[in-house]
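Hey, quick one: can you model this chain's 3D structure?
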Amino acid sequence: MKYIILVGDGMADYPIPELGKQTPLDVAKTPNMDSVAQAGKVGLVKTIPPGMKPASDVANLSILGYDPTTSYTGRGPLEAANMGVELRSDEVAFRCNLITALEDTLADYSAGHISTKEAKVLISSLNEKLGSERVRFYPGVSYRHLVVIRDEEGVKGLSAECIPPHDITGGRISKNLPRGEGAELLINLMNSSRSILSDHEINHVRIDLGENPANMIWLWGQGERPNLVSFKERFGITGSVISAVDLVKGIGRSIGLDVINVPGATGYYDTDYAGKAKYAIDSLDQHDFVFVHVEAPDEAGHNGEIRQKITAIENFDRLVVGAILENFKEREGYRILVLSDHLTPISLRTHTADPTPFAICGEGIDPDDRMSFCEAEAKESSLRIDHGHELIEYLITG
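Sure thing. Here's the predicted structure for all 398 residues.
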């Protein structure tokens, strides 16, 4: 049996007045996800446990079968795992965004989705000027990077409350800085980065070109090294993960999945959807499971761009879901699960903890009467999974 999970990050949404009180999933042309719905079942799954923040790390851990209430230690260490950064027991990894700050306003959580090439130069400069035996900067992809800090007094000394930058776009920086144990060090690094980055030649060029400068870092999502049981040990099968973002690849690497890097996978609107589908299909020659993650709908949600979100959903449907269905239409012995890991409503430009729709089809899955993949159909379904980490058990065992 082959098991395939296809995640359109943040696809689900609330009804939007500009769309006649429909959601992007309602409006988008999604014949392939609708085919999954018609051939199988549609339901709602709660990927975010009560009391936990509605973040992609929590949601995707749930989807892969790991209970975040017992397995989650933070976003930073998951990204570190994919970057090959091994954390010591006295170290904490922080996600480090390159952002655009305009006086006291956080104007852009992604610094205009700065290129990886430019970002690497900036992060290297920060490591040269702010790095030490205690603090190290590691370049990642686009605006997403890593800072590792050693805490001589133990990791609990760096437990400050840190707000994700995409939650406060347009908000005041001074009102949203880290608070609590270790905050002073984090704030000092963030403020010090501002003078270094503002004077950097790359940002002078970006401003001249009318692009948002990467003139400050934002630290958040900290955590210590996780200890996760392998996917094979949990479910008795091997598999792979395909994503453009270190977070999802880091989860995969932490649970022993093969991490497949797809050329042209960017984590943004221009990602190579077709390439992801091709590599996913090829991976099933060696494995019985593949997890494919596409970030683009989530980015559109954070940016508040309705049309870009619709386009991203349509590309995901046509180039990823469609390609998978076409490959398996003459085959037996497979199950396909399609879902949004969480909602990223256009109206809020951030994640919510609402239950999210899923559709599942394949061998042994008896069809229900749902005709499309969307929020309304899922809400009308009687199929509810209240603990997100149990969804994969439903996929594998039926």
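One thing worth noting: The chain has a mean pLDDT of 96.
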